[in-house]
Amino acid sequence: MPRPKSDFETLYPYRLYEPEEILDPDLMYTVPEIARLLQGLDPDVELDPETEENLVRWTVPWLMTHTDDLVINDPVGDEPGYFGVESDERPAEEIPEDADE
């Protein structure tokens, strides 16, 4: 249910971090690790499953917003995908035409 702004003592500007602000350019991260970093947490900190699920849910739109700035590995089997900041030292490669086969 919507609430009047007057119900809140403090309002802050809504700000999305840029990938370079939270991701080390030399590392690749899973979505749950990025979710933790976006909250100012260590990427290895333990969270209860419900909290982690909520953080991941908020992280997916952030990833979609920054697709031009990020690279992803080619996951093998059930391994998770890892995301990182695209850099001149390690730019994204072209996706082969038969990648989905």
From TrEMBL:
Superkingdom: Archaea
Region listing for Disordered, in residue ranges: 71-101
InterPro entries referenced in this protein's UniProt entry, alphabetically: DUF5827 (IPR043867)
The protein's name: DUF5827 family protein
Protein's organism: Halobellus rubicundus
